[in-house]
Amino acid sequence: MRAYEDLVIEAENRGLKISEVVYQNEMEDLQQSEQALFQRMRKNLKVMRESVAVGLSSEGRSISGLVGGDAVKVEGRRKTGESLVGKQLSGVIAKALAVAEVNACMGKIVAAPTAGSCGVIPAVLLTVEETLQVSEQELLLALFTAAGLGMIIAERANVSGAEGGCQAEIGSAAAMAAAAAVELAGGTPRQTADAAAIAMKSMLGLVCDPVGGFVEVPCVKRNATGAMIAMAAAEMALSGVKSAIPIDEVIDAMGEIGKQMPCALKETAQGGLAMTPTGRRIQADFL
Amino acid sequence: MGRSNVFDLLGPIMVGPSSSHTAGAVRLGAMARKILGEEPVEGTLSLHGSFAKTGKGHGTNLALIAGLLGMAPDDERIPEAINIAKDLGLNFGFKIADLGDVHPNTVKFELLGKTGCHAQVVGSSIGGGTIVIREINDFKVEIRGDYPTLVILHQDLPGLVAQVALLLATAQTNIARMLVSREKRGAQALMVLETDELVDDAVLVLMRRLPKIYQVLAIEPLE
């Protein structure tokens, strides 16, 4: 089974970034040129940018009418300069809500790693881009780092709410975003591992309990909070804070917790928020 | 989950909200259209399990019709698919059904095409947008739509599999996966072949001329 630690060691030994190891491996596995891989990733980045832009300016509602219009509220307050958490972090929140709302409203997004968790990675990386003025090439590389970690999570555990709960979706997205943000901010391969571990540890045990079974409540807002966890984890790792438990072991723990989690809390809408009086009422009203 | 690639984790590009209930549903519709082999004009779609229970809130109905109209999972017209079908004068209806011991996200299509072809297709969306076609016209199959696929209905006779393989070999078409099944010895049988390259039309003509081959269906892969 593959380990993120192997990527870190290879990157350290060869003096490369994690992303460079990842895309070089993929060139071999997929038998595709560097240019072809980057072209495909550029398409992903383009759709991520578009989904942020659409969500930040749209007040559309989802099919059920439960979500929509919240990204606009946060972005509006941010623009007045009143943000409590600062302009940069309120931007993370607004962007994550934006993409997740576009998804809920049947707009176009990039699953990252899933549709339900599509807001975390674009929110974090596009905010780092704004803050640090990185190049598009560096941003594309960071996406390979995120995907490289995602592949290892998918192999050692899973990235499916039905299989592992929300920790496997937003948790994985937060870990992927944290690792990518650290690389983008100039951190070392080892620091990307620490950031990923810290982010995923913070999401362990989170259940998948969508009201009515829709990818709306609480999914949309969890994209925003997951993105904030990713930012906090990246900040810690860049400061030299280490994770006591290595990332591969955290991923394995996430997989085990997913197995131990009862079925009612894994995307079946039979437990948690879905079974609250309000959750039941919303479902009854819709059906 | 098995070995994946970077674009399984960042991707697909799709219209939301759910990879299994929306993107997978579009691909199921698109695959049913390819199996029918022409534009469908009429159809009944039977929704099973989670497709039946939570499909409405995920736009599963819209997504299935979008696929039948030939749209891809990232087509921004998906939310309008049912209206588009109505405007085109196409007649699709939905039913809730118990399709038995199948994956929770399963649909059965009963389709009529514009030149009168019929097809009955059962397929499941098994996660992350991946699909499996389980049944075509009551025959059990397993088609994921990622390779060009031949479905060949024939009589169970010695040497027929070799003859089909020889035609493909002559055309330098490589077989990636093959499944053979039969009702009983000497009775009606089925070959499902996934190939690395698209099968040449000339090869299909020759294949259809082989004795005791009743039907050859060539299905293009999904995008």
From TrEMBL, chain A:
<protein>
    <recommendedName>
        <fullName>L-serine dehydratase</fullName>
        <ecNumber>4.3.1.17</ecNumber>
    </recommendedName>
</protein>
<keyword id="KW-0004">4Fe-4S</keyword>
<keyword id="KW-0312">Gluconeogenesis</keyword>
<keyword id="KW-0408">Iron</keyword>
<dbReference type="GO" id="GO:0003941">
    <property type="term" value="F:L-serine ammonia-lyase activity"/>
</dbReference>
<comment type="similarity">
    <text>Belongs to the iron-sulfur dependent L-serine dehydratase family.</text>
</comment>
<dbReference type="InterPro" id="IPR051318">
    <property type="entry name" value="Fe-S_L-Ser"/>
</dbReference>
<keyword id="KW-0456">Lyase</keyword>
<dbReference type="InterPro" id="IPR004642">
    <property type="entry name" value="Ser_deHydtase_asu"/>
</dbReference>
<dbReference type="GO" id="GO:0051539">
    <property type="term" value="F:4 iron, 4 sulfur cluster binding"/>
</dbReference>
<dbReference type="GO" id="GO:0046872">
    <property type="term" value="F:metal ion binding"/>
</dbReference>
<keyword id="KW-0411">Iron-sulfur</keyword>
<dbReference type="Pfam" id="PF03313">
    <property type="entry name" value="SDH_alpha"/>
</dbReference>
<feature type="domain" description="Serine dehydratase-like alpha subunit">
    <location>
        <begin position="14"/>
        <end position="274"/>
    </location>
</feature>
<dbReference type="InterPro" id="IPR005130">
    <property type="entry name" value="Ser_deHydtase-like_asu"/>
</dbReference>
<comment type="pathway">
    <text>Carbohydrate biosynthesis; gluconeogenesis.</text>
</comment>
<keyword id="KW-0479">Metal-binding</keyword>
<dbReference type="GO" id="GO:0006094">
    <property type="term" value="P:gluconeogenesis"/>
</dbReference>
Automatic annotation (TrEMBL), chain B:
<keyword id="KW-0408">Iron</keyword>
<dbReference type="InterPro" id="IPR004643">
    <property type="entry name" value="Fe-S_L-Ser_bsu"/>
</dbReference>
<dbReference type="Pfam" id="PF03315">
    <property type="entry name" value="SDH_beta"/>
</dbReference>
<protein>
    <recommendedName>
        <fullName>L-serine deaminase</fullName>
    </recommendedName>
</protein>
<keyword id="KW-0411">Iron-sulfur</keyword>
<dbReference type="InterPro" id="IPR045865">
    <property type="entry name" value="ACT-like_dom_sf"/>
</dbReference>
<keyword id="KW-0004">4Fe-4S</keyword>
<comment type="similarity">
    <text>Belongs to the iron-sulfur dependent L-serine dehydratase family.</text>
</comment>
<dbReference type="InterPro" id="IPR029009">
    <property type="entry name" value="ASB_dom_sf"/>
</dbReference>
<dbReference type="InterPro" id="IPR002912">
    <property type="entry name" value="ACT_dom"/>
</dbReference>
<dbReference type="InterPro" id="IPR051318">
    <property type="entry name" value="Fe-S_L-Ser"/>
</dbReference>
<dbReference type="GO" id="GO:0046872">
    <property type="term" value="F:metal ion binding"/>
</dbReference>
<dbReference type="InterPro" id="IPR005131">
    <property type="entry name" value="Ser_deHydtase_bsu"/>
</dbReference>
<keyword id="KW-0479">Metal-binding</keyword>
<dbReference type="GO" id="GO:0051539">
    <property type="term" value="F:4 iron, 4 sulfur cluster binding"/>
</dbReference>
<dbReference type="Pfam" id="PF01842">
    <property type="entry name" value="ACT"/>
</dbReference>
<keyword id="KW-0456">Lyase</keyword>
<keyword id="KW-0312">Gluconeogenesis</keyword>
<feature type="domain" description="ACT">
    <location>
        <begin position="149"/>
        <end position="223"/>
    </location>
</feature>
<dbReference type="GO" id="GO:0006094">
    <property type="term" value="P:gluconeogenesis"/>
</dbReference>
<comment type="pathway">
    <text>Carbohydrate biosynthesis; gluconeogenesis.</text>
</comment>
<dbReference type="GO" id="GO:0003941">
    <property type="term" value="F:L-serine ammonia-lyase activity"/>
</dbReference>
